[in-house]
Amino acid sequence: MIEGLGEDITPEEVAFVQDELAAPVDVDAFVRSVPRGLEAQVYLASLMAIDLDTNPEAQYLHQLAQGMGLKPDEVNQLHEQLQVPKLYS
């Protein structure tokens, strides 16, 4: 069972969620879908959803930050809010 989806989820729904989670993310399309003014909040949500312990995760966050126009200092401040490693030195 996938944590947080509840007890009454069907096997088909579990399979759908697992497939979606395994699929590559189109960062550019995702960035285009973010309403103006919510860039920092969406970045924080993405940051909370991962552990930031692999290079692909760091690359995703870098692409996301660039696509949303977030400056390195802003990104590092967001990381500090969640007490996770900074993305930029």
Rg (CA only): 15 Å
DSSP helix count?
Answer: 5
Q: Give the number of DSSP strands.
A: 0
Class per helix and strand makeup:
mainly alpha
* Uncertain residue segments: none
Concise summary:
By secondary structure, this protein is mostly helical. It is built from five helices and no strands.
Write structural notes for this entry.
With 89 residues, the chain is mainly α. The protein is 60% helix and 0% strand. Helix 2 (27-33) packs across helix 4 (55-67). The protein is globular and about 45 Å long. The chain starts with 10 loop residues before the first helix and ends in an 8-residue tail after the last helix. The mean pLDDT is 89.
Characteristics of this structure?
89 residues; 60% helix; mainly alpha
Chart the SSEs and their pairings:
Blueprint lengths: L10 H12 L4 H7 L5 H11 L5 H13 L4 H10 L8
